[in-house]
Amino acid sequence: MAAKITEKERHIFIENMFAKLENVTVESIVSSRIPLKHNGRHLLGLCPFHNDTHLGSFLVTPDRGIWKCFACGDGYAGNGIKFISLYDGIDYLQAAFKVALEKGIITYDEYSLYSQRQNYSESYIKKIAEKYDKEKKSSAKPLKMADIAIRHNVYHVIKDACQLSDQHMSQLKEERKLSDERINADYFTFPCLSWEKNNVIKKIREEYPEYTDEVLMTVPGFYYDRTKKKIAFYAVKGIGMLIHDVYGRVAAIQIRRDTIKEGQQRYIWFSSSFAPYEPDKYIGGTGCGSPRDILYPANTDRSILCITEGRFKSEVIRDFGNVTISLQGVGSQKGLDSDITEIMKELPIKSVFLMFDADSFGNTAVFLQLEKLICMLQEKFPSLKIRVVCWRKEYGKGIDDLYHNGKIKTVKYIESDLYVKTYRSVLSKILKSYETESLSDLKKLSLEEKKSFEDNLQQAEESIFLQ
Ligand SMILES: [Zn+2]
């Protein structure tokens, strides 16, 4: 039963608590759950919401008071309280009470009275979250991203202006086994030397004189450099790849870095989202969102659509005659349904194969995202047969490894309902052996216990699906 305090008392107490929570930094809240490492103006950590093995996707930005996972995408961003609410599996208001208690803002008695012994309506909690889950004001408002027609044109000029180096050519041909046709269509050596960059800008000016500085500074990757008094773009050494939307237009550029230092990601987006934070140095600049990468096969008589993660996986799947959609992480599903609808207008798609990396078996967060994806597909596309593609981890992490090492015939295509049902039952058996029934209790396990839990889960899955 709710303890006897008035609505108004509760309201005042909560407002006061949030006012004090404003002074608690996002990094102190996030680092109370996961380790973080300084990197420039950000802190990096391994994302607890997807199968993260390398620093880079999960960022905490103290001067904006926010965190974000670029792999998980929509919904996996916000302030410190939002992080606790997702991590601990509780609602936004409960998370605020918990942080306030942990940071000594409220006493245990107050926590017990206002949090544990009260019922708050969903609509109230939603209102509170909307009011407080905001970032601190940044220095300059990022500009709206240039529309797809402009991006398509500008990115094509960059590619056409840049030769592929011998080193990159042999990487793509020998290691990745791409055809000349595919290499010519989408790949180039990213321009880094200043004459190369000047040449790119000159070519854009020649071909599209209507793209003024004001237009170019809204194309992800570009910004206006106040010191040099001219348009410039972000560059790193590596292979540039054109990323296409469902209509074949170039929506973005991804770059595969030649070399990586600790904490850096191998694949990065051509983006200038950093520029608005240094308004005395730059004007404009914008991020590219989390674009999906869609590849169509040369012949379109096959009826299979594959969903995976990563361009070089898409390439081998396409090579086998399938349409592929590469997501920026299995959790990044917003808008995917409309892409599939568009594809189905053109092609006789009958089956969807989900081809995510083998090590995702043991990761319950990845499973939950996969389950969500399967539910969405079943609900919106009831005519499609959905299969989860599984293989032994020792044969390779990604589906592309199996194509290249000849183990592709060992993969199993598991009907999605069976997959979810089996996974759930194995999961609950293993949870019981850890004397818990809820996934959120897993957070109480030590790192070592968590590792052994995931190994057990992985082994059980492999023994069922891959005998
Ligand atoms: Zn993530």
UniProtKB/TrEMBL annotation:
Transmembrane segments: none annotated. SMART domains: ZnF_CHCC. GO terms for molecular function: DNA binding; DNA-directed RNA polymerase activity; zinc ion binding. GO terms for biological process: DNA replication, synthesis of primer. Keywords: Metal-binding, Zinc, Zinc-finger. InterPro entries: DNA_primase_Znf_CHC2, DnaG_primase, DUF3854, Znf_CHC2. This is DUF3854 domain-containing protein. GO terms for cellular component: cytoplasm. The keyword Metal-binding applies.
